[in-house]
Amino acid sequence: MATALTVRHKNTQNSRPAAKVPLKSQKPVVQHDLPKVVSLFCGAGGLDWGFHQEGFQVPLAVDISEAAVRTHKKNFPDTHSVAADLIQLQPAGVYELVTGKVPAKSRIGVIGGPPCQGFSRANTTSQADDPRNRLPKLYLDIVEKLQQTYTVEFVVFENVLGIRDKKHAATYKALVDGLDSLGFTVTEKELCALDFGVPQNRRRIVLSAMRKNQGYGEVRPKKRTGLKTVLEAIGELPAPKFFDRKLTAADIPVHANHWTMQPKSPRFSNPDGQYADGRSFKRLSWEEPSPTVAFGHREIHVHPSGRRRLSIYEAMLLQGFPHSFVLEGNLSEQVEQVSNAVPPPLGRSIAAAVKHAIAAGKKK
């Protein structure tokens, strides 16, 4: 199975206007007065990247996907990244992991977004009793367990809009009420990645919960200027390599993840590249932002040329990942990681807003 191949080649231009320079990671200055962050359902680390860039330390991250955890280890070498099922760990198991990395009585924050398939509107067969819908309750139970030893200053919870739909209303209300009962003031925001410099119409619910009676301000992520269209994000890139078992690092241009599968559908050979869009065959437009960038396992969107699907790297850029970020795993695993990630620039805006809210409390 194909894995990420580490290589860097100078970019080459095609007939498209030049794209803007991809987001660059800056070495953040760790701010030791900030709470340490525990990341649950961390995935590849899009939300973690945002908190890391704002100076938060992330000593522990947990996810069920072994490929995502390999990615996390590669990109966050100072974090203890653990591949484990939180349902099996239960709050006691998470507590044990945290106490191994964070001194008792420390101030901490808990961030993450449980798998959203059970709440997704794209999942037309979703039911209120989907087992995955119990994960928000587990999330609350973990926070409550950590409060026994740590001062949990904030909690950030991210999920799809469908979590507020009528059939999931009881689960959503229990989540908000549960945070309140654990001693947090909750701010609810519907955020679109396009408003934060990410060329993608991706809307999500973010609950930011700050510890009560500390004088903390409301968490208000500030909008950021940035890329607006597919063209700006990937227009300059050369063609990716198509996967074969003999593919080596030296064969891949630009970035380790700039590869995709051979186009096999007869629709890719249509001379004018025109065909009807479908759920798993959605062609992007150069002059518009991307819809939600990926879904399923191999159903990544079609390149604007109409001749192939996006490369993994192109999907990463449409999610706002920095050039330095590399995904591990096979195609399905990499697509899943891109699909599930919080866009890093949005993650950074959330982190900056949490930091600003904490600073407001210090001034009082």
From TrEMBL:
It catalyses: a 2'-deoxycytidine in DNA + S-adenosyl-L-methionine = a 5-methyl-2'-deoxycytidine in DNA + S-adenosyl-L-homocysteine + H(+). InterPro entries: C5-Methyltransferase, C5_MeTfrase, SAM-dependent_MTases_sf. Keywords: Methyltransferase, Restriction system, S-adenosyl-L-methionine, Transferase. Belongs to the class I-like SAM-binding methyltransferase superfamily. C5-methyltransferase family. This is DNA (cytosine-5-)-methyltransferase. It comes from the Bacteria. The keyword Transcription does not apply. It is an enzyme of class 2 (transferase). NCBIfam families: dcm. Transmembrane segments: none annotated. Pfam families: DNA_methylase. It comes from Caballeronia udeis. The active site is at 116. Its EC number is 2.1.1.37. The keyword Nucleus does not apply. One of its GO terms (molecular function) is DNA (cytosine-5-)-methyltransferase activity. One of its GO terms (biological process) is DNA restriction-modification system.
